[in-house]
Amino acid sequence: MPGKLKAKIVAGRHLPVMDRASDLTDAFVEVKFGNTTFKTDVCPKSLNPQWNSEWFKFEVDDEDLQDEPLQITVLDHDTYSANDAIGKVYIDIDPLLCTEAASIISGWFPIYDTIHGIRGEINVLVKVELFNDLNRFRQSSCGVKFFCTTSIPYSYRAVMVHGFVEELVVNEDPEYQWIDRIRTPRASNEARQRLISLMSGELQRKIGLKVLEMGGNAVVGYLQCFDLEGESGLVVRAIGTACTLEKFSSGSASITCPHPSTAPPSNACNSPKDGKESPLAHGCRSTHNSPVHSACSSQRLSQNFSVSVPTLIFTGMGSGGSAGKEAGPLKTLLRQQTQTTLEQREFPFFTLTSFPPGFLVHVGGVVSARSVKLLDRIHNPDEPETRDAWWEEIRQEIKSHAKALGCHAVVGYSENTSICEEVCILSASGTAAILNPRYMREGCLDVGSIDHRFDDPSPPNCGFCHIPYDELNMPFPAQLAYCYQCRRQKVPDVLFTTIDLPAEAAVTGKGCLIQARLCRLKKKAQGEVNATAISNLLPFMEYELHTQLMNKLKLRSMNALFGLHIQISVGENMLLGLASATGVYLTALPAPGGIQIAGKTPGDLNNEQHVAAIQKRINDAIAKNKELYQINPPELTDEGVGSPIPEPRQRSRIFRSHSESSDELSELDLSHGKKDAFVLEIDDTDAVEDIHSLLTDAPPPAGFHSCSTETMPGIYNWTSGIQMFTSVRVLRLNNTNLTNQGLNKIFTDLCENLLKSFYFKLRSTVPCCLCHLNFTVAVPEEELVQVSVTAVAMTFDKDQNQEKPPEKATTKGGSETEDQLQFPLELSADSSSTSPQPSKISGVAENTIVSTRAVSVDYGSFADRCSTWLELLRLKAHTIRRGSVKTISSLEHCSPLPEGRSRSLCSSRSFGVGSVTMVKMTPLSFLPGTRIIKYLGIINMFFIRETTSLREEGGVSGFLHSFIAEVFAMVRAHVAALGGNAVVSYSMKDCVLMENPNKNQAQCLINVSGDAVICVRETDQEQTTNTGQTCGTIDGAT
Amino acid sequence: MAVELDVFVGNTTIMDEEVYQLWLDGYTVNDAVRARMEGGVLDEFDATADVLLSDTMDQYRTFQMCERLLHSPAKLANQLLFQIPPHRQTMLIERYYAFDDVFVREVLGKKLSKGTKKDLDDISAKTGVTLKSCRRQFDNFKRIFKVVEELKGPLVENIRQHFLLSDKLARDYAAIVFFANNRFETGKKKLQYITFQDFAFCAGQLINNWTVGAVGEGLWLLPLANMDVDLDKEFLQELKELKVLITDKDLLDQHKSLVCTALRGKTKAFNEMEANFKNLSRGLVNIATKLTNTKDVRDFFIDLVEKFIEPCRSDRWTAADVKLYLTHYTNSAHILDTFKHQVVWDRYMGVIKSCIFKMYHD
Q1: Span of the secretion signal (chain B) (predicted)?
Q2: Cβ neighbours of A735 in B, within 8 Å
Q3: Which residues of A455-494 are buried (b: 16+ CB within 10 A; e: fewer)?
Q4: Are the beta carbons of B5 and A956 separated by less than 8 Å?
């Protein structure tokens, strides 16, 4: 019996009136875990009942603890008829299973009903006592920490990065079971919510087991998704990066490093030179080639149909084909060596998007793979092999692409799907990269000496740009130049990646959001014909999107994309493609050329004037953008550099068309014929469209910036104001005779208007930057286009935004200067962490500490000082309490209310107004101006909301508006109950809306996730350090 | 092509004060968009009408969802649905409960019943306040009235605590509740010149001096409801004793000569004062003695105007004259040997004096 779960129902408030006659409610509560149910007494005639129940105890396996949620149902007692349900609360108790996370769940939870939404609140206390389980073959994985954050969490250091973990679980969707015909919508929704909760619990447990097998203790960059496959079932899948994390104690670090000023990692982004430096010069030519897609021959499986897998590699400028899957010969000796460790692994993938300094050596480019599948009923939920096989296939593809780019690993890796009826597009993408060999080495690192051995004479801020592949045997034609920073190694002229901009990278000017948007009509079809049609369209779409990205990048005079995310969504009669990324000017890369327009018929005078006019507009736009984004790269004399200066004509043309790649050509020839590769001919209708889309993208209004990455390159002095938001817009296309161009225009306008709307709404927060703008597109019905966006607006200090603070490895945390001065302890650990680990056979050892981006809540702009103070009080109470609770549980007797908490509750109540904890939410991994002192566990919630009175709720907009607000409220309540005050790495994975206005009905499913944290203001640093230490001693003592 | 759905939800609820005011003022979405465009939002910020419409719709939806909470403001602080910083909550509540003086002037002293609610159309047409806004204001009055009706303790404090209003607004509501409860007549033509603020001041005077709650701190422990809302019956009874001031001829003459002695040479209106003394004194004392009748309580203000203010005004007394006269009139009564009701007299005249001062203007 490895665990005892205890729950206590304290009180309710704001309950709905269930008895019309008396305007009151006779409420009682059922508490259910697994198959055990307890009930409280009925609290008659009250809308604010006080149950103050006994502790309900559930004795359960830890396996169940991980899988099952605690289910609390509030009901209205009815003597004569069946009791009416008021609503439910599902509490994920996973955070309690990890000693380092939360120790108690206590607080007000919204009572949620899938038909009526939030109906009052209930105060609940939950605790878990875990007994040590010595069974080696156990099925549970309690204690493995999960993080949604795609970097090493703050206040932890990665002792070792083990690598990729994945798992998927399938089941029948309750909505499609026969029983659904006879049960109420409420029962069906609840069955679904419960099933998904169970499945994600199971998934997390299984992933945890894999991590334990690998010797790790945490999963970072945990990404869980649902595939609602309809008739064929429900798939919950997750990927992540297994790590061994160690919480660093500031005390020890301070002893080992007395000179904090030397701490900023000087070895960041080393080239792998160390003695075994490859004799080969890294080089590169710019590539302007069409996407050569390696169409896998269609294969028929017994049960499902799968068609060609058009895939692309985006590197530099071109979309290189996967030229030869086993592109072996270009590996240097060194790489072969470093590779072996990684290659022993099935998939050398990392879901991380930002890395400890020195981890990332070179970046090759974006690799992506897509596959179109026909869904088939999952016959045996216990053997999800088909889905596994599908993903396996895609991952193999990605792996081989990375190899083709001379890289042994893929970072910033993610997977997603788009489903329409029975067709499913599986996509995976990432960035091919070479990781530092010292992280690859078997066994532990000799951390003491790293600095000397890996000292790299080349500047640390350009290393990752250097090409990883072999100049003489390049996977695709590319244009290379010597690095504009170190002048030693070759760099491509353009770099695309899915990761965040490395903190140490040198950037000229500011970045900006760059989006490519595309619609393609397709004929309605069924089954294999449909799948084939889609897969035939995919490469064209990828190519178009890529062209758009490239053109827009050039129009802004930039040369690199970070955080690139390409989504292709399938509907019955169209495909939507949306690519978002943050464009920057990397100082190390050559300046991008302009865009040159050419007429098709040079003789025609009118035409030439037209061409000249367009050319002028484009040139003007480029000049304006340069000014706007402050791109003034130092003038370099190219002569000195060995790279060939491209002819002006060649340099400045839009690339469109055929690849010169020597590749064995694919079945599909995407070329536009053997035209000059770089001229944009305006007679070409596509080209007109391109120009149009180029010039219609409005820059953000003054005071605003936007980016798709965590932070904006070029802005370093964030202030503490943040505003996270979710926006959803659905367009109905009434006109059935739309052309591709017409659709493109509509889609582009939709995205542009959304952005304009954001700027307008947030106009009072300027100067600010919309960070992590994450667009999701979907085609929910035949004529509907849905775009959902979650992002955060962050304010920054205008005065200092011109210059990057000199001489330091600025991380995105902002106000880093003070960080380093004030808190040298943690930073110093960077160079001095000494914690040898037992050698792992295939571990990626990694010893760097995440720099301590200090974060804390600032209520200055949003709330009063009072609550900040209160927050701190609570925090203190909380930390102290942790110790005491532990003692209690070890003595196996329980007090109804831990002292600390009760005290904090009292103190907050005494304030009257503002007794609800402010919980900040952000899609980023940090909160500016604050410091995360504790991770409380992962938040992963799934909600269904349905209505049969759509008009009364204000139409679909009213319905969704309140649902999103309710989801936010429930996330905040759970975080607050865990003792936290913020959610980082928040994301809304799914927002599936189905409506039937004629029947006055709508249904919506939302899945959200994030990390619950406690953060404190940077200014409160002293106190918290003290508290932390106190806490430590107490913990130690018990 | 049509926008089927368009929502924007912030973790911290975003509310524009300007749009909130338009919503409170009962503008429709389209009218609000027009008003905002005229207000020049678009000029300050390069945006299209679509953007404005979308923003206005979002805000209106938010306000509608919040409205339920605003009906019991204490809930706003501990609800979980909207994350609103405390100072914004205060703003929301204060603005929601704010009212138009022109509107409140129309319903002041009327029964807050369904009947009155039906007349809101007319009031709306008369005052130019939109019907929607009239309804909100009327419902606010009614809601606050209903809640404090059943509460013990000081009226202003009750309102402030239950509705989290500012002191000023709580006092105004106390006045409204007080007027509605005692059904003071305020609608007569003669009273039209008196503003709501004048009445609110008078109500404050009455609440502070003439109600049960006004007598002493300890009294509020008594199990008496509405001590601040109802006038002190005992006191009203005692007021009858003042009649002696006009019925006893000696006393009346003595009083007159004392006042006249004090006033002589101090004002241009002395002759008029002397001539009118008996009339005015009768008027004021009669008001006092009749207050035991509910009907006469209702006519309190009209009586003050008819019996005192109008005669003075027709004699062109200045405000200073009135003040001077009333001061001496009150004080001289203390010197009267046979007059034993000094305490009641002071309690009565204190309020009368300040009410008349406030009401004595054009």
Answers
A1: none
A2: 1
A3: ebebbbbbbbbbbbbbbeebbbbbbbbbbbbbeebbbbbb
A4: yes
**Residue A485 and residue A459 in contact, taking contact as beta carbons nearer than 8 Å:** yes
Secondary structure (DSSP) of A473-538:
G-SS--BEEE-TTTSSSEEES-EE-SSPPPTT--EEEEEEEEEEEEEEE-----HHHHHHHHHHHH
Residues with Cβ < 8 Å from A557, sequence gap 6 or more? A585, A591, A592, A622, A625, A626, A629, A631
Question: Which of A734, A763, A954 lies nearest to residue B1, judging by beta carbons?
Answer: A734
Residues paired with residue A161 on neighbouring β-strands, in sequence order: A243, A844
A chain contacts of residue B45, beta-carbon cutoff 8 Å: 701, 759-760, 763
- Residue A374: what pLDDT? 87
Distance from the A66 Cα atom to the nearest Cα atom in chain B, whole angstroms: 27
What is the reported pLDDT for B168? 93
- Hey, what amino acid is at A351? T
What phi and psi, each to the nearest 5 degrees, are found at residue A986?
-70, 140
**Residue B182 token pair:** 């005692």
Structure tokens that stand for B125 in this block: 């047409």
pLDDT for position A268:
33
CB pairs under 8 A between A and B: 154
d(CA B80, CA A968): 9
Predicted ipTM of the assembly: 0.88
Scanning A830-889 for CB atoms below 8 A from B yields 859, 862-864, 866-867
Q: Is B55 on the interface with A (CB under 8 A)?
A: yes
Closest CA to A521 of A670, A736, A694: A736
CB contact A110 to B (< 8 Å): yes
pLDDT digits (tens, 9 = 90+) for A770-812: 999 989 999 988 888 999 999 999 998 876 544 444 433 333 3
A314: part of which helix (H) or strand (E)? Answer: strand A311-315
Instruction: Decide: A276 and A333 in contact? Cβ < 8 Å.
Output: yes
Chain A residues close to B49, C-beta within 8 Å: none
The tokens for A1038 are: 């018990």
**First-residue to last-residue Cα distance in chain B:** 61
Dist CA A532 CA A519 (whole Å): 18
- Give the 3-state secondary structure of residue A179: helix
Considering only alpha carbons, which residue of chain B is nearest residue A725?
B10
Query: How confident is the model at residue A460, as a pLDDT?
Result: 63
Of A414, A551, A497, A433, nearest to A713 by C-alpha is A497
Q: Chain B neighbours among A 685-714 (CB < 8 Å)?
A: 701
Backbone torsions φ then ψ of B58, nearest 5 degrees? -55, -45
Tokens for A342? 């990684």
Q: Give the amino acid at A446.
A: D
* Burial call A327-337: b when 16+ CB within 10 Å, e when fewer: beebbbebbee
Nearest to A402 by CA among A441, A371, A369, A372: A369
**Three-class SS string for A367-382?**
EEEEEEEECCCCCCCC
Per-residue model confidence as pLDDT tens digits over B284-340: 999 988 888 888 889 999 999 998 999 988 888 888 888 888 998 988 888 887 888
Contact A109, A7 (CB under 8 A): no
Closest CA to A704 of A756, A772, A780, A633: A756
Low-confidence ranges of chain A (pLDDT < 50): 1, 251-339, 440-458, 637-678, 801-914, 1022-1038
Contact call for B6 and A110, based on CB within 8 A: no
Nearest to A45 by CA among A68, A66, A69, A28: A28
Cis bond upstream, residue A279 (ω within 30): no
Q: What is the mean pLDDT of residues B122-144?
A: 93
Distance CA A458, CA A270 (A): 8
Report the pLDDT value the prediction gives residue B60, as an integer from 0 to 100: 95
